[in-house]
Fold each of these.
Amino acid sequence: MPEAQRHARLHVTVRPSAATGFGERAFYVQYRAGGESGEIVKTRVWGISASQSQKALLMMRFDPKTAIATDTAIDAIKPEDFVRIMGCDLTFKRRANAFLGETSAGSCHLAAGDGRNLNVTERHDISANLWEVSDIGVDAQGQRVFGNIDGSPTKLRRASAFTCWAGVSQNDAPIVVNGISLHDQGGSANVVLGNQTIRLRLRNVEWPIGNNRPSLTLYLSQNNDDFAQIYAWTDPNANRIALNFNAFQASCTRNEIR
């Protein structure tokens, strides 16, 4: 796919908050560009309440009054530090084994950075392991200001957490580092083993085209190189994966879901 048409990589963390005043349940959401260690590009709170009249769930959007909200104490966030974005509620209804949420047609209006008034349509399709988001903003002349050019949704895959170890064999004594945290949506970590540094990356790979089967894949590279010297793969639902390359070993075990 041409680079200009590729969707930017986005890492989104959704955490429940015990804060009150946002609805029956509150969730703190943080968006990072490029991956888990990338720049925080936006934060918000989603408040969820049941609508008996619509037989649906209403998800209300609250944006921070400052550009980026701190996430150091998400249970202590207060409604007065946020602004509810009126007209942009999402109405969720169950559809098979997923939930589909949409804004009401013509109701969501936001101001662009240059002052233009934008008509925004937003759609969320949420299943157990996939969250698809389509959001498009157009100005009064019908010009698209944001949203994927081809109209396709941004696909956010649920990340599973793994705990890993890595080691290197030496003549005198092996060096082992435990407690390395990775997730299976491209999570990576640099691991110092004596005077050597390796990088581990874990991905649950799904191929958009071709006959390759989805695979949980563990990569090992050296010298801060993104090119993997070795990789191992297994079933995408496997609880454990390991590899052995020259003097290096590494293993990752899926964390229990609490």
Amino acid sequence: IQVTQVVAVVGAGVVGLSTAVVIAEALPHCSVTVLADRFTPNTTSDGAAGILFASQFPGEQRRWFKRTFDHLLLIASSPEAGVAGVFLSSGWQIFREVPPEKKPYWSDCVLSFGTMTDAELKRFPQYKFGQAFTTIKCECPSYLPWLQKRLEKAGGIMIHEKVTDLAELGLRYDVIVNCSGLGSRELLGDEDVHPVRGQVLRVHAPWLQHFVRVADGHTYIYPGAGGVTLGGTRQAADSQAIFERCRRLEPSLGSARPLGEWVGLRPGRRNPRVERGHVRVHGRRVPVVHNYGHGGWGITLSWGTALDALDLVRQCLNERPPEARL
């Protein structure tokens, strides 16, 4: 007879794996299983540009950003940085008009924040204002396998399984954690989750050392270990249009060699959903913790929302004794 408390995490993108790791490490008496039909390198997270930026987030998301930044900063400062694909990245965010808020709330989360000098802005004649700072680049093709190893070390299990019914999982698990991203649309019928198109190019341009991002997020150049990522788009656009926008910012890209492109759908939602719910199984309420809807901010908010999900899982487990299972 098994009386260990068993937790299922649905989804193996950056949000699902972060959540599974946090639970497995904090609650060693629990058995944590990740169920997903796609693992790295085939997740939406694998296509992410992977640089930490804060948008004009409402209150709770500010806390998630700060907690994720601090977590990744520890990795970037450790011997694990190379294998985890997490490192510091310095550069500029530029604005066509001077923004109302010259020093945003996140300026004390990132490192070395300052206003760009006139000399720095000369490189970008169409732009009137800029912010210079150091943030973190997190490359999911390295980071996700690193999280998987960390999960295995904490005793977690990963199973390739397409979940189509959360109630069915309620027969096997004490708590279900839903990190299915866009999958929540069909899994839960959540109409607030909508596909947001993402498209990035990768080019070989090793001479580029600094990121450049236009404040609207539609054009960016992010150097990384596996090449330079060029983006971006929120609607259909062809690669050539993205490349031309980036080349106008950085003319030396004319000599860059193309490495590939990624097009995918991100789970957009007005706010990520991090809260409790339940499913009914044979008249029994099985707790569900939701953690999805991060849109293009999956990496940026991943560890912060995982820590909140852990608190909710703890609540659920404290409220119910483990089921005896044969």
